[in-house]
Amino acid sequence: MSKLNTPDSMNVASVLPVGGGFMSMEPQTGWRQSLPHQILTGLPLTLFFPVGVMYAGVLLFYISLILSGGYLKKIHRIRQSAMLLPILGLSLVSIVLAAMQDIPPEISEDFWPGVWHYQTYLFLLPFLSVTAGLWQRRAMYVFFAGAVLAATLFVANFFHLLPVNTVFRSYVIYEGNKSILLGILMAISAAWMLHDLRTHRDHLVWRVLAVVYVAAALVLLAKTRTATLLFFILCGVLLLRQLGWSWRTVALPLILLAVLGGGWKYALSLPPPTTCEVRLVQAGPWEIFKLRSLCTVHQLHDFSQGRKVNDDGMRLELYKITSEIIAEKPLAGHGIATWMYLYQQKAKGLISSTMTTPHNDYLLYLTEVGGIGLFSLLVIWATQYWVAYCMAVHENPNTREMAMPLLMLTIAMMLGGMFNAILRDGVFGMAFMILLAIPLAGMRSKN
């Protein structure tokens, strides 16, 4: 593990500027004061295990905050965070809309859980009470170790070495959101590893092998198209960052679009697969990857031509009908927890009629809390971009180093929200709050 280019942590507060800056560090003394840092350092590892492990780790973190004292300082740090007002804004909008909403009997059981889902970002605020420090880099390495472990478990499952139990179930059996999350975590981790190579060259061979190992397991074994797409996009962001602003910055996306266009036409020239149900196909990893790619292209093409899609392509059906529901009340939405009821009424007899979410956070927000709610969410993501920019131009190298991880997380959330319920599902939401805590710790918008 490489060390930060900073003095001993007891003197680090005198090194990083706090006046008018965006990062502050305070010396911590005693085991109680350092306990939140230690627990937060290990939390990224819990993301690769069943969701109960993650929530148990978060609970321990909250307990450590209480034990560590210094409550006024913690509240002060949260108040100084640039994230505070946007987060409270989204919560306020959702609560006001909920208070104005009539609750029909059909959604009464889902209403309060639905309200709670819109408060996911509030879980980030306690994490923001922790000061910056060496624990951030340690937490990143713990995250890297978790991704390597996940890749190893996927490899072990490929050779039929994993039992189907509670701990390994998401690696053995495709379990929807949890399995997708594992792939997204591996994509983010691999991209973070690549970024880390720019400034830390010790053990270079092992670092490169770790990136290749995690990326290969993601693409060939994790069985999630969203995560694979995310990994390649994040690699493109890193490449553009490395190239800087030049003609190549414009040429590279154009080349990628040309390659994608050629790949699209080639895929359509091939006969459609007989089945898109991956769990029913006995084939190697590369064949599975090609199958999912072909199925995606053919399903999009069939839907655009008005032809019927199968179970693998029903998201297109979800998006179309949900868009029709949104058009009825675009500004304030139909109300919290109304999507499922409204969709099932419109989709009777269709293969997608049993869906519980539209698998798209943008459409879910527009349906339930309208353009006002979606705008509140986009303000949060825009703030994350702004903070990442401020970090990137900061005079301290350790602050600049955390800018790209924050940018990548924001891209991951915005892209993931196009295909999954990133904030609607606690499995995704809490995981992203934990990861956001790493680059955002100690960040503040004012003195």
From TrEMBL:
Domain O-antigen ligase-related span(s) in chain numbering: 212-377
Pfam families to which the protein is assigned, alphabetical: Wzy_C (PF04932)
UniProt subcellular location: Membrane
Membrane topology category: Multi-pass membrane protein
Superkingdom of this protein's organism: Bacteria
Entry annotated with the keyword Nuclease: no
InterPro entries xref list: O-antigen_ligase-rel_domated, WaaL-like
Main location: membrane
Record keyword Coiled coil present: no
Keywords: Ligase, Membrane, Transmembrane, Transmembrane helix
GO molecular function: ligase activity
Transmembrane portions of the chain: 47-72, 84-103, 115-134, 141-159, 179-197, 204-221, 227-243, 362-382, 403-421, 427-443
Protein name: O-antigen ligase family protein
Protein species of origin: Undibacterium umbellatum
